[in-house]
């Protein structure tokens, strides 16, 4: 079982370009999440999806969009990248979206640099 | 809003000594608390969580955490540190979809 896979592993992107980060899970979890990790700030939630077909905004959603067409995939799109979006992006999943007690499991991350 | 704080950016211990990584929390309702570890260039790995019940929670790799309601703390502990425990540790508090992380504590275990 692979768990959560993310692609690409790393990417350098020119400002203004569009970029989609991919995330796939094989655990049949209902809920998925996108976080960004920045030094000294820990991880911050960008967007989430409690179940296929639904999405919601997290703590730092501006400049990002997501879709959840099926259970397994949860792509994150930067419509027009800016340097402040340089970060490490982590995808996560949990069995039940609204359950505070459920553990979130994380993918290996995508390191994105916007120049 | 709920939050956690990790007051130490860095913790250094000698191999074989006990270690503690501190975390305090602030919530309006019931606290659901988590500890994760991150090794270099890797994602976060779940260590343990507190939901309810026993204040001492045991987790992976010999780690445990003590929930203290009066001090609003959830410190991570291990009786005998290993060099391989050197990593970045994150405390988190969760309410529904919203999981808030601390800034992280870098643990270095020296031989």
Structural class assignment of chain A = mainly beta
Q: Structural class, judged by helices and strands of chain B? A: mainly beta
- Write down the secondary-structure element order of chain A: EEEEEEEEEEE
What's the helix count of chain A? 0
Radius of gyration of chain A: 13 Å
How does the major sheet of chain B shape up? 6 strands, mixed
Query: Which regions of chain A are unreliable across 5 or more consecutive residues at pLDDT < 50?
Result: none
Radius of gyration of chain B: 13 Å
Question: What is the total tally of β strands of chain A?
Answer: 11
Beta-strand portion of chain A reads: over 45%
The helicity of chain B comes to under 10%
Instruction: Tell me the helix content of chain A.
Output: under 10%
Uncertain runs of chain B = none
Mean pLDDT of chain B: 94
What is the strand content of chain B? over 45%
Major sheet attributes of chain A: 7 strands, mixed
Q: Could you characterize the architecture of this molecule?
A:
Chain A is mostly beta strands. Chain A contains no helices and eleven strands. In chain A, strands 2, 4, 5, 6, 9, 10 and 11 form a seven-stranded mixed sheet that branches. Chain A has a four-stranded antiparallel sheet with strand order 1-3-8-7, with no helix packed on it. The model of chain A has no long low-confidence stretch (mean pLDDT 94). With 111 residues, chain B is an all-beta fold. Chain B is built from no helices and twelve strands. In chain B, strands 2, 5, 6, 10, 11 and 12 form a six-stranded mixed sheet that branches. In chain B, a hairpin with a 2-residue loop joins strand 10 and strand 11.
């Amino acid at each position: 079982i692979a768990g959560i896979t993310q692609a690409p592993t790393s990417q350098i992107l020119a400002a203004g370009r569009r970029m989609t980060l991919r995330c796939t899970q094989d655990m049949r979890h209902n809920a998925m999440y996108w976080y960004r990790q920045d030094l000294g700030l820990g991880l911050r939630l960008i967007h989430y999806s409690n179940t296929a077909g639904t999405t919601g905004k997290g703590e730092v959603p501006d400049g990002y969009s997501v879709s959840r067409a099926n259970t397994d995939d949860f792509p994150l799109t930067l419509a027009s990248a800016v340097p402040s979006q340089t970060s490490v992006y982590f995808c996560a999943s949990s069995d039940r979206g609204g359950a505070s007690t459920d553990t979130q499991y994380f993918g290996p991350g995508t390191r994105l640099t916007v120049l | 809003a709920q939050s956690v704080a990790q007051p130490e950016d860095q913790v250094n211990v000698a191999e074989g000594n006990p270690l503690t990584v501190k975390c305090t929390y602030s919530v309006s309702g019931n606290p659901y608390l988590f500890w994760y570890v991150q090794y270099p260039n890797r994602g976060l790995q779940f260590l343990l969580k507190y939901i309810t019940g026993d204040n001492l929670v045991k987790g992976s790799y010999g780690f445990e955490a003590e929930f203290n309601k009066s001090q609003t703390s959830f410190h991570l502990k291990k009786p005998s540190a290993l060099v391989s425990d050197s990593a970045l540790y994150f405390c988190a508090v969760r309410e529904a979809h919203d999981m808030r992380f601390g800034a992280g504590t870098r643990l270095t275990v020296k031989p």
